[in-house]
Amino acid sequence: MRIQNAGRGLLSSAYLLGPETDSKSRRGIFVQALCYNAIINVLNGTYLTGFLLSFGASANDVNLAVTLLSLCNMIQLISPLFTERLTASKNLLTALRGLAHGINMLLLPVLAMSGIPEQWLLPVVLVLVSISQSLYAFVSPGMGTWHMRSIPENMRLGFYSFFNVINIVSVFVMLFLAGVFADFFTGLVGQWAVPLLRLAMGLFAVADILALRRIHEYPPKPEPPKSLASFVKEMVQCIRHCPSYGKIIACASLWSFSANLPSQYYNAYLLEDLHMSFTFISFVGMFNAVAVILFTPFWKRLIQRQGLRNGLFFSIFLYAPYAMGLAFTGEGTLWLYPMSVIYSLVLYVGITLSFAIAPYEGLPEERRTVYLALYNAFCAMSSLLGVLAGRLVFTITSGLGPIMILGQEIAPARVLVGVYSIALFITAFICRALLKGQKGETA
Predict the structure, then answer these.
(1) How far out from the chain centre does Cα 360 lie?
(2) Alpha carbons 254 and 247: distance in angstroms, whole number
């Protein structure tokens, strides 16, 4: 009974209980977000690297794929131009999400296992990855506006705090199970293991679509048709009319730039140079579940009392040394990798929770889809710039020849994560300066 009451208390604090329409919608939002995040985390990151490496792609090919993903995210900028004209967008957004899932979890793995020559397969895969990411990006602002109507401002911190705990636990359990799956099937079917993993994730795609269908849609106010030029002009005016939200966008963009500097170069370094297994990498990441359970209450209280400004500053500032630990990880110092990652997970809880509520901090009542599109598009553009900057650093470092420190050769990927650490420190202080004067409490 105590366990049951505690569980009901947690669900109640996240506003998930009740027969009301909004409560049912919040449960649907909760489930679909869990499924979608599991899909994205398993299909991208280390497993995207493994998928591309499985048919002969190089580290630069992997970076190109990440660059294309970031570039495709820019389509969020023009998404409201189409979605705001609709009196009902639920069916369209759900269908486009389903199409993206079909490309990612059916078409791509089938092509990878079809026996197409590698020189033809890579361009086709890159095109399809770009199409699927463009579809995900296109529906994102509209879904944010659609779902936000069921989560009023006074419920957001409670909802997202609980969601953050369950989401991170489920994602890292999924990543660990995916690692076991990939390593096990690598011994049986070789390079087909990661494509098979993509097929298996189709179950989560089905659950995602079913949950989306259960979320209520409130009819938006129909907007008069706009030309692309007038729409761009309106977006520029939105930032001018609400400079406080522009600062939120700037902070999120800085984080997106810094966080994407390592791209997939470091994952490729772990898999190819240090020969780490998917299982080991995922197992270390699973400590995130412990960190979330133990430290979410701390970060929630800190953000409530100190505001988003200090929540972002402390979490990013203290997170930055983790990247320096990665920079010192080599063949003789493999122990630094798990120590650095486990340390980072405690701080990443605060970063995740801060950016879960950041898009809604001071969000104006009017033109919300446009503001969310601006937020997402600037983050996507900054992610792209971060990936390109990381590629530049990696290319320059690789061209310098062997880099020796204390008699040990340092791989270019290690230099890159050292630069990443410095960028994180700078990001923390700039965010603190930008959000000066922000209110002390967050609803």
Answers:
(1) 17
(2) 11
Of 350, 244, 248, nearest in space to 292 by CA:
350
**Helix 336-357 to helix 278-285 angle, to the nearest 10 degrees?**
50
Residue 346 and residue 291 in contact, taking contact as beta carbons nearer than 8 Å: yes
Polymer length of the chain: 443
- 8 Å CB contact between 349 and 296: yes
Helix, strand, coil percentages, rounded to 5, for the chain: 80, 0, 20
Which residue is listed with tokens 């140079």?
273
Contact 134, 72 (CB under 8 A): yes
Instruction: Flag whether the pTM goes above 0.90.
Output: no
Q: Quick one: which of 375, 325, 315 has its CA closest to 347? A: 315
Kindly compute the dihedral angle of the four CA atoms of residues 393, 397, 398, 401, in this order, to the nearest 10 degrees.
170
Report the chain's terminal Cα–Cα distance, integer Å. 32
- Quote the CA–CA distance of 41 and 171 in Å, as a whole number: 7
CB atoms within 10 A of CB 222: 10
- Counting DSSP H helices and E strands in the chain, the numbers are 19, 2
Among candidates 395, 43, 66, 53, which has minimal Cα distance to 259? 66
Q: How far apart are CA 334 and CA 265, in angstroms?
A: 17
Per-residue pLDDT tens digits for 243-284: 777 888 888 999 999 998 887 778 778 877 788 877 788 788
pLDDT of 402-432, one tens digit each?
566 655 667 888 888 889 999 999 999 998 9
Q: Which two tokens stand for residue 242?
A: 């609400």
Which amino acid is present at 116? I
Provide Rg for the chain, Cα atoms. 22
- Residue 154: CB atoms within 10 A of its CB come to 9
pLDDT tens string 156-196: 777 877 887 788 788 878 878 887 887 787 777 667 787 88
